[in-house]
Specification:
This protein is mainly alpha-helical and about 150 residues long. It has helices at about 10-25, 35-40, 45-55, 75-100, 105-115, 120-135; strands spanning about 60-65, 70. The chain folds into 2 domains: about 10-70, Orthogonal Bundle (Arc Repressor Mutant, subunit A), CATH 1.10.10.10; about 75-140. The protein has a two-stranded antiparallel sheet. β1 (about 60-65) and β2 form a beta hairpin.
C-alpha cells in the first residue's frame, strides 16, 4: 500500500497556475491578477502569494515589488543551463541505477532498448516505453548491489 500524498493549498494553486501558463491561458507578459484569481479559486491571498514564490523560483513568474507578478519565459541561455544541469543529473541517476540493477532487470532493460531501436514509429516506442516502465520493479525493490 502506498502512502497518500498530501498537497498543501499553495502547491495545488502553483500546479493550477503552472498548467495555465503551459496551456497558454496565461501568456508571457501577462500580469497575474491576484484579486481575480482569489475570487475564482475561492482562496485567500496568502496561499496564492506562496504559489507565486514557487513559480518565481521555477522561472515562470517574475515578481516585481510594488508592481505585481508577471508571467515570464526562460531565455535561451537559462534553458541551456537547465539542460546542462539535467544532463549531469541524468548521468548520475543512470550510473546509480546501473550499479543497483540486478541481472534480471538488466536483461529486461536490454530487451527494452533493443525493441526501441527496432522501430521508428513514435507511438510504438511510447507503448514499449510505458509497458516496460510499468512492469519494471520499483527502485526500492532493487538489490543494493549486483548479484
Amino acid at each position: 500500500m502506498k502512502a497518500i500524498q498530501k498537497k498543501t493549498l499553495h502547491q495545488e494553486i502553483a500546479n493550477n497556475l503552472r498548467e495555465m501558463i503551459m496551456s497558454g491561458e496565461l501568456r508571457e507578459g501577462d500580469k497575474i491578477k491576484e484579486d481575480e484569481l482569489c475570487t475564482v479559486m475561492e482562496i485567500s491571498k496568502t496561499p496564492l502569494r506562496e504559489a507565486l514564490r514557487v513559480l518565481s523560483a521555477e522561472g515562470l513568474i517574475r515578481l516585481i515589488p510594488n508592481r505585481g507578478s508577471y508571467v515570464t519565459t526562460p531565455t535561451f541561455e537559462e534553458i541551456k543551463e537547465m539542460f546542462d544541469v539535467m544532463s549531469v543529473l541524468e548521468g548520475v541517476c543512470a550510473r546509480t541505477a546501473a550499479e543497483k540493477m540486478s541481472s534480471a532487470i538488466l536483461k529486461n532493460w536490454r530487451i527494452f532498448t533493443t525493441s526501441l531501436k527496432r522501430t521508428s514509429d513514435l507511438k510504438i516506442k511510447s507503448n514499449i516505453f510505458t509497458t516496460t516502465i510499468c512492469i519494471m520493479p520499483s527502485y526500492k525493490s532493487w538489490p543494493a548491489t549486483k548479484p
